[in-house]
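Before relying on records like the one below, remember that each one covers exactly one chain. Contacts with other chains, cofactors or solvent are not represented anywhere in the record.
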Amino acid sequence: MVRVSNCIVGFVNSLVLLLGLVSLSFGVYFVVHGSSHCEKVLKNPLLILGGFSVVVALLGLIGSLFKNTLFMFIYLTVMFFLILGLIGFTVFVFLVTNHGAGKVFSDRDLMIKERKTADFSNWLRNHFVNDKNWNQIKSCLIDAKVCGSVGNNDNDVDFEAFVFFKKTLPAIQAGCCKPPRQCGFIQKNATFWETPKSGAAKADDTDCLTWNNNHRKLCYDCNSCKAGVLDNIRKEWRSLVIINLILLICLIFIYSVGCCARRSNHKSHHKYIRGFA
């Protein structure tokens, strides 16, 4: 008789197998039909995650349903290292996203969410806003038209600047879709700004020199845009810490049940051998 522990392991891994197949399907779809760079970037994580999930799920299914102690041992070994890896990754994410957590911002900074790349950890800066990776991220931002919804009408020249500033802009839009406020540019509408006749308030600020009213350039190469992206990544990764903790609890539970299933399979195997002795 199949024990309850084997049933639980079999049921859980059946779900994991289905999710793995879905992930593989999406990965293959992006390989075949992915047109933009952003879609193609998704294919590798989906294929790797899907393939790994399918292999692990098959090990668990064979070990639990067929009471195969060898497959169950391999399954539990993989689960053990997966739990250790998830603990290490969760601690790492917490450390790299905790830099500058106690930094005090002015009310105006908080309102329009302007940041500087120095407010973030070296690891985040080195891996996301270096020249190679930033060009790829910038391409995705342009394709996603993140600045397309900043204003109600790009041709509305009567758009009042104070209304724009009073909006709580997401960090990416605040950094990529307008010049930094210290430049002193004159706003005509949501994404069109004029340089004062006297020049930018801070002519030595590279962001002021980088700003361009072309909708495919804007401030995508500005330091403030990079900081906005890093701010978004930091928030997403902080949410990931919570998800990882929940996943960790689930994995530990499944691992414990798997250990019970392995002991059950081991006892059944010995009883089967003694029955023929």
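The beta strands are 186-187, 193-194.
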